[in-house]
Amino acid sequence: MNALKLKKGSTSHSAYNLRPTFSDTIEQHTLAVVVDNEAGVLARVIGLFSGRGYNIESLTVAEVDHTGKRSRITIVTRGTPQVIEQIKAQLGRIVPVHQVNDLTVEGPTVERELALIKVAGDGDKRVEALRLADIFRAKVVDSTLSSFTFELTGTPDKIDAFAELMRPLGLAELARTGVAALSRGEG
């Protein structure tokens, strides 16, 4: 009868051990949360993150249904799969939240961000900034004798890459909107 013995501290792999296993790997997830567009809702969502020590990497909010008075909050956050599951469950329990979608696990997404990048410089640096802006399809939205302000839309990685190239050329200021994201296809 003692054919199967477990060492002290080991776990059994029986049918009674129904606890799911999660990885310790930190992952980035994009969450889309549909909420009532009313005062205090954003504060409650943000409070959930800050109260539990979760970080928000990107946050965008806008009304998406004027007649139904609903807004969509797009949040980019990082955590272990277990932490992400906790965040989604806790968001779903907030009363004015109507829907929580984890776009990262639901399939392919389209993600875009808008950035305004001010580059100050002259001479060759100015010419190089314009050349790189053309490669990245950045649009000049303001120009003075000593600076350019570029408008760039794309993935966060594209904006990061452009900003890094502009640093040695005189990057003076950077403003970003945060990620706006949708699932691809008909869903």
UniProtKB/TrEMBL annotation:
Top-rank lineage group of the source organism: Bacteria
The UniProt entry, under Pfam families, shows: ACT_AHAS_ss (PF22629), ALS_ss_C (PF10369)
Q: In which pathway does it act?
A: Amino-acid biosynthesis; L-isoleucine biosynthesis; L-isoleucine from 2-oxobutanoate: step 1/4; Amino-acid biosynthesis; L-valine biosynthesis; L-valine from pyruvate: step 1/4
The ACT domain, residue ranges: 30-105
Q: Which UniProt keywords are listed?
A: Amino-acid biosynthesis, Branched-chain amino acid biosynthesis, Transferase
An example GO BP is:
L-valine biosynthetic process
Query: Which catalysed reactions does the entry list for this protein?
Result: 2 pyruvate + H(+) = (2S)-2-acetolactate + CO2
Q: What class of enzyme is it?
A: transferase
Q: Name one GO cellular component term.
A: cytosol
The family line of this record is: Belongs to the acetolactate synthase small subunit family.
Share what the entry says about its subunit structure, partners included. Answer: Dimer of large and small chains.
What does this gene product do? Answer: Catalyzes the conversion of 2 pyruvate molecules into acetolactate in the first common step of the biosynthetic pathway of the branched-amino acids such as leucine, isoleucine, and valine.
Q: What is this protein called?
A: Acetolactate synthase small subunit
